[in-house]
Every structure is written in C-alpha cells, then in structure tokens.
Amino acid sequence: MGKQGSPKSPRPGSLSFDASSGFKEYQFRWNEMLQNGDPSLGRRVSGGEYTWDKPIFVKGFKNDSVKYNASKGGSAGKKHLWWFLRHLRSIIFTFMLMGLLFLLDSLMFSLFDPSFLENSPNPSKAYDAKGRNAAYDDQEKSPVLYSRLLHMASLSLAEKDPEKTVSKFWKEQFPQASSWTPCADKNVKRAGTVNNHTGFILVSANGGLNQQRVAVCNAVAVASLLNATLVIPKFLYSNVWKDPSQFSDIYQEETFMHTLKNDINIIKELPSHLRSLDLEAIGSLVTDADLAKEATPNEYIKNILPILLRNGIVHFLGFGNRLGFDPLPYDLQKLRCKCNFHALKFVPKIQKIGSLLVKRIRKYDSARSMLDKQLLGNFISSIPSGEQVNIASSSKYLALHLRFEVDMVAYSMCDFGGGENETRELQAYREEHFPLLLERLKKVKPLSPAELRKMGRCPLTPEEAALVLAGLGFSSGAYIYLAGSQIYGGKSRMRPVINLYPNIVTKEDLLSPTELAPFRNFSSQLAALDFIACAASDVFAMTDSGSQLSSLVSGFRIYYGGGNAPTLRPSKKRLAAILQENSTIRWQSFENRIRKMIEEGQRVHIRGFGRSIYRQPRCNECMCKHQ
C-alpha cells in the first residue's frame, strides 16, 4: 500500500476507471458512517486525523489495482458491484480489526504512561474530604512528587494475589516489645506526707484531646509530688480546635476519682472561699512561660511548692508538656501510667459510637482482645470464657494516622509541591496562627525546604505514606481506616493514595449523619472516636512519632496488646534519603530499604520501648503496669 494521503501510480496494465455511479449505495453508507463519527474510522486515539477527501485505493481482483475517486463521477458495471458485495464481509472485518488495534494501542499507552497515575479519576467510593482548608483543593491535577515510584507501586500491587501474598507486617515482628520488667523503687523527695496537705492545684489545659490527656496525667503526678489536692482539670477553648468540651464531656469523672482515690485527693470544684481570689494578683497563676518545658520534680519543689504553701493554691494555665520523663521517680511514673491507662475512661456516649465504629470496620460483634474491652467497656460483647475468636471470620484492618493537617504543614516550613497557591496559603496561615514563629525566623537564617526534608523535619504526605505501605507489601485490597480526615489539600492530596488503596474509609464513611450529630462541632470528641479505632486496629501505622495521638495510641497498644498489636513507625529522615533516589531506584530495592527501616525501628523500640509507652517522644526507661 502506498503512502497515506498520496496517490499511488497504477502498475502497467492495471485497470483504472470511475466507479462512483456504480457504488451509490456503498457511498451513501460510507458517508453516513463518517457523519455519525464511527470511532473506528478516520481518527487515531492519540488525536491525529486521517483525510478522507483524497483518492482511496483498494487492491482489487486478481492483480489489478482499481482507483476510486470520491470527487469525480463515473460509471461502473454490474461486475464491480458483484465484486464489492462478494467482499463486503472482508471489508467490514478489516475496519473492525483496525478499530480494535487502535483501541488496544490507546489502552497500552495509558497503562505505561506515568502521567496516567496523576490524572486518573477518583474511584466511585473515594475519600471525600469536605470543607478542607486548601485553596487548591478542587484542582484537577494533584501535586504528585514521586510519579515514577507510584507507577512502580501500582504495577507491583497489580501483580500480587491478595489471597496468596500477605504482608508479614500484619503481625508483630517482635512480640517481646510488649513484655517488660518493673523498675526498682527509687528514693523520691516529697513535699510531705499525705496528711500534710499543702493546698489546691488547678489546671487549665490547652491543645486538643491528646495534649489535654497528657496534661491531666501530668497534673496527677504533680499533685502527688507536692501532696496537694487536685481539682478536676478544665480544658481551654482553642481557636484551632474550636471545641468547648470539658472533662466530663469526654471522660468519666467518677471513674477518674475512684481509680486514683488511694493515690491523691481529687475534688470537682474549688472550695467557695477560694473562688473569689485574684490568683494572678497574689502570684498563684503559673503560665507555660513561668515553667520550663518537661520540668523536673526538683523544679516543682523549688519553684512551685513555695507558692502553694504561701497562698494555698496554684493555677497552671496551659500546662503543655510541663513535666519531664527522664529522670522521673518510679512511683510517679507508675501513677502517671495508672492515670493514662486506667483512670481516663471515655464517657458512655463516646464508647457506644466507638464500639459501633469498630464493629462496622471489622464486621464482627465481639471483643477480640483486651484492647477492645478497655476501650469499649460494656458496649461490645465479651469473649465467653474458653472461646477462641475466629479472626478469619472478621475483617482485618490497618489504621493510618496521617498527620497532615494545615497547622502541621504550615508550621513545618516545608514544600509539598503545591506551587504558588500552596506557598501563599501557608504563609497567610502562619501570619494568622504562628506570628511568634515568623518573628523567630527573622533572627536566624532559615533552612531551605530541601534541607528540612533531608533532616526528616517534614510531615509525610499521603503520597509518601501510601508508598511506605506498598513497600511493606500491603495489598491493594487492604482495608484502611484513616484517622483524622482534615487532610490538607483534601481530595487532591488523597488521589495518589486512593489509586493504590481504594478501600480507605473514615468515620464519616462508616457512621451516619444522625450517629455523628452529637459530636458535630466537638473536635476532641471526634478525635476520641479516632483514638478508639486506631488503638483497636490490627496494625497501626503512624506518620509522625511526635504526634500526641500516635504516641498515646502506640503506648495503649503495647500496654494492652499482649504482643499482638504491631505499630509501624517510619523514620522521616531515612525515608527522605530513600525517596531522594526516586528517579533511579528500582522497586525491589525500594521495598528492601523500606522494610529494613521499619524493622530496625522496631528493634530500637524494643531496646527503649518504655520511652514511648506514654507519649511523645519518650516515657520512663521502665514500663509500669498497674496491678
């Protein structure tokens, strides 16, 4: 066949004639197909067009070539009409085959084009992030940093049989992480005996659910250290969290007081004769600026006890991370653990919806472990004595805590590939919420985003978290619960994750609007549901070991998990070094390095696991379990 669009000279002896009049029926059908836009005719999938107003050549009967010109009139005999009708099936088959080949060509181009992953549409049941903070949330193109690795991950997951290939990280690789030896008692310097009451301690805790939980347990330890009476802590309203919830809205007051009654004295309200005091005027108001972060017990005895003895009352305002972890007397650490793991029980309203959430994730009705019993109380049926739970009959799930909210992203000063829109938006957020950070940065030479990422100081993006899971061998069918749905960038940011792991759900997906209605506008209570779902999961994956939620959940899982509650802790610094080779690294090498990173992190955790049992980033060197 000659070159497309250029006439082919007939060979010597060939027959040439006009056949337009003899092919009126054929020409009518042909023109009708063109007008109706038959996709298999006249257009390549890639966008190029054939030109149909030029002469068409058909190889005819015997060895002759016949020239049919669509622009000229002519006559044709019955012989040629008979030939066309005889070969009509062959002609139709030829065009159908050409259309099929073009369709196959388009499909193969899409599969092997790396940009396909970036621009592919969301699954019908994709993660829907409503009301997000990002200005570029509705952009069609998601900010993808590692398209090559995502493409390789997609191919790797597609090749694996989820029923035959099961990631070993569904199980705890080092069960000894949940066994511990109690510490020997240490001498503790105290302010006096229990009978020698020194005064009252008020605490107004700032932050969200988990930071406030830490503050409560620190307050219990400080009250014991100073032999003071603790008033049930108050929770400050935050412009970030916008939650007016108080202690009794989240935790059971009576359980809290009863569990700790032999350790410290706790009351619900300050005595009436002290309520009218101007605490700031008499010097009893202690802010975070007055007390060092992670202060030692001796600092409390030296600086706080004199105020308590003089005025009979001290009010800690803020109280964010104001008690240290190393060194800490054993009995104070034990008391802090007792508060965290035993005294702080969620109110029935939260336990009830939390049990419903876990039930819908697992599709199973009974408690499977001590974790379930401790988290959900009487709102999930217990395992009958001697009965073994058939875990295969319920759904395993991985809980992923993506610490990628706008405040975290803005504070990090890192670049996440969102372009000028991202830069402007995050700078505006810093100016509104972190003015002190900007003032501090004016006095020093700021590190570049590349340097910050290399040092492991940038929060993991959803894209990076998905690559870690793929590198660990979790199949594309893995059921994943996403904790905290306020992902910066919303659907745009989540698109690469959904492409790899479509079975991602949030509490908003599993609970009806009616069931969630009592928690609307109460972010701390919603965070409590995430806490329950993460702590009860088969595998918990964190993206920031410094996160309060991640640290408290991992501690809870070690305390009650019995060696069967694995937690994945990626090192941001090591991961940044691996991802820096995005353009050259082979997928097998990527998998090996990701798995080595997680396994070595778990071994380090074993050697000093007590340091992370309570909260970020460490606790006491030894673990305490309340008897």
TrEMBL record:
One of its GO terms (biological process) is fucose metabolic process. GO terms for cellular component: membrane. It is found in: Membrane. The chain crosses the membrane at residues 88-112. Belongs to the glycosyltransferase GT106 family. The keyword Transmembrane applies. Its main location: membrane. The keyword Acyltransferase does not apply. One of its GO terms (molecular function) is glycosyltransferase activity. This is O-fucosyltransferase family protein. CDD domains: O-FucT_plant (cd11299). PANTHER family: O-FUCOSYLTRANSFERASE 2-RELATED, O-FUCOSYLTRANSFERASE 8.
